[in-house]
Design goal:
The complex is a heterotrimer of chains A (127), B (245) and C (115).
Chain A (H helix, E strand, L loop, with lengths): L22 H28 L5 H10 L3 H29 L6 H23 L1
Helix pairs in contact in A: 1-3, 1-4, 3-4
Chain B lengths: L5 E14 L3 E11 L4 H11 L19 E4 L2 E4 L5 H4 L4 E5 L6 E3 L2 E2 L2 H9 L22 H9 L7 H4 L2 H5 L6 H11 L7 H9 L12 H5 L6 H18 L3
Parallel strand pairs in B: 1-5
Antiparallel strand pairs in B: 1-2, 3-4, 3-5, 6-7
Chain C lengths: L1 H33 L3 H8 L3 H29 L5 H26 L7
Helix pairs in contact in C: 1-3, 3-4
Chain lengths: 127, 245, 115
Amino acid sequence: MSANDGLGAKTQLRAGTAYRRDWLWVAAFVHRLSGIGLAIFLPMHFLALGLAIEGEASLDGFLKWTQNPMVKIAEVGLVALLTLHLLGGIRVLLIENMTWQPGQKSMAIAAVAVSILVGLLLAVYLF
Amino acid sequence: MTSADTISSETIDVSVWRGGAEGRYETFAVPLRQNQTILDVVTWIQRNADPTLSYRFACRVGMCGSCAMTVNGRPRWTCRTHVSKVVENGKVELGPLANLPVIKDLAADMTSFFEKWQKADGAFVPSKTRHDPIEEILPNTPARIEASAAIECINCGICFAACDTVRWQDEYLGPAALNRAWTLVNDERDAGKSDRLRAVAAAGGCHACHSHQSCEQHCPQKLNPTASIAGLKRLTMHAYLRGDL
Amino acid sequence: MWDLRLYVIQRATAMLMVPLILAHLVIIFYATQTGISAEGILSRTAGSLGWAVFYGVFVVLAAVHGAIGVRTVLREWSPLRGGLLDAIMFIFAALLIGLGARAVVAVTMPGGLGT
């Protein structure tokens, strides 16, 4: 019958966030993370291009550094971030400004998939 | 217990939150029955194992919206959730609705949820008196179609518990309150539209929504609060661009 | 209606940036195909008013859009509230516009630089 067998120690109430196991949530989360990534990257991007003000040589020195495979991988990641944030953003703009369309989940998955493809394409170009 | 209605001697392990903000999960072995709902399980525990268990329910048939709880990490209406649908490896974990303070055990304090309905101007403002003739409302005008699509909310709080924006922004009004505001904005009998637009456009209003769509995914009434909130975003944005807000 | 104003500005900058980002991505692919060098970049951009306007507008839009986004993220994922959030937003926007303007000037200045 009944069993008060499980009287455990005092603990925290579990968060109840299993709703996050969903493509739509993942797409929104990736959109946010890519935005944060771009916000961190942009100042560095501008600083690097600003090297041209000190002459072509220093910009070239920087660009030589970008031939480093690790840096190339980072660049592929950045282009993927930009594409992710672009497609995720278009998705949000459509949701917010157009009449509701069904099939949001496929849109979300497509946005993530296309971004990965663009990243891979750049990887092919770079290496 | 006499168990003519138990399908076997099988039981499930039901882990139930006991206490307030501080507490523990207590496990009960509950006999498995046919067509058993989570609310049946909770009621069984209270009647047969521990009468001090606190939980909330009224209609038991999916109309009143009072029995929502966290079931295996997701908010659900427990009276219409079959055990067979949610049981994982013979286990079920029950807690009070998330994003609300716990009163005791499975009962969450819904105060902030309903206060936000008020804050979103979720109350109908009549434009006529009882002395006026009854107004004819056509069901097929665009505004009425929008209102009707969103009107069947039962105030269960599931969308509120499934919303990360509620979790992350204490002042966010939440999907249910904004969805309610959307139905009133589209109600031609309502006289409070400009105040309501102002209420939902303030900080913590519709613009805080990130369209995660968890509300739509979890609404037991299959409503789409994300779409309603998007409607409010458009209306308030146009009002702002016209200089009305 | 401060939050509504920020919302409208953020969505407007987003919409305006859609074609600019697509162009930027095309340029990235074009440039990496031919190999990136300072000479390559500057021969394209130096002394060009068109590129100066293109990148100048892009920098301002990205700075404003990014700063509002940073404010939203901090509002939700940090304990910061109120005026401090707005202060960080303005500082971040100013930083991006400053660094961005320097970069645009550096790559579009007539005749190129240094060499």
